[in-house]
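Hi C.,

You asked whether I'd gotten around to modeling the 363-residue construct. I have! Everything is below, sequence then structure, no commentary in between.
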Amino acid sequence: MQKVVENTKKAFLTGNEAAAWAALAAGAEIMFGYPITPQNEIMHYWTRLAPKYGRNFLQTEDEISAGFTVCGAVQAGKKAFTATAGPGNTLMQEPFSMAEAMRLPLVAIIQQRGGPSSGTVIYSQQEVTLTTFGGNGEGHRIVYSTSSHQEIYDYIIKAFNTAWKYRFPTFVLGDGYQAKMREPLEMYDPEERGIELVKTFPLVGLEGKIGEEREPQHLCNIYSMEEELYEVVMKFAAEYEAISPEVVEYEEKECEDAEILILAHGVVSRAADDAVKALRAQGIKAGYFRPITLRPFPGKQLREAIAKSGAKKMLIAESAYGQFDRLVKQEIYGETIQINNLFMPGVGIIDTDIISKVKSIID
């Protein structure tokens, strides 16, 4: 396969451009998609770039078809992906759920927009619940929440490796601001940085006679007996919990002596980071904790940050009405730290919003 990036190059791109280049660098062979704002340009850039590198694209009749065609392609051993947002994310939960049931290495990029329903076409962090715990039943998936264009590039490459290594569907969660704005990043060939690309493999149509040379492949998403489903769900849950310590990622700063911890994810974590610096300069001991994987969630690490700091108060900031808050609370249930909130659904949060809220909590 033709190399996409020779050496490291500095670029000034939109998040959607960075996503398309990252998928190319990761060795993605085909994208299946359907237009929806604010992820459209991922498709546009992919269709411009893909023919130059021998890659493929198919625009399906809707988002449900896009999700299912990715499921089919990965079963054939193709490194395939899709991208969507908002109502498209809702429609794709059926194929995403099937990917969970069949342990398919599906990769999806989600550029969040406002909701419920069609909401706004601009920005939000309102697809956290849907992306982390969507689908019907008790499926298992891996979700990275990015905060910058560099992370979009880095984690899309990582998402393909994670999906194919562990065979759980993997999501890269961005947002409308990251999708549309431009900022600098470094584009690189992953193998030049020592990142080995996990090889794909067919899940069906394998060589050998069943019963003599190999066991049959059972890629099921429906079971006739309750006991069968119980065994499968418990098996997948145990395997997911076993690999979670290897997958979980987080970032923390200034937590050692913090009197108040500020929690945020995605693009809002940039405002939280700036707010902590400003508050520290004003003599207020604030700490910063950011989950990078929303699922699996770094609950153990957050509990350790609370214990280490001795903080009595926490502020959870998000551009949604409590979706991230619910994730945090279920992970640290039993902790006695006072939890405060800054909910601004579908609206951008800047450092001064967080600084003002922290001062009101302290006062």
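If it helps when you're writing up: The mean pLDDT is 96.

Thanks,
B.
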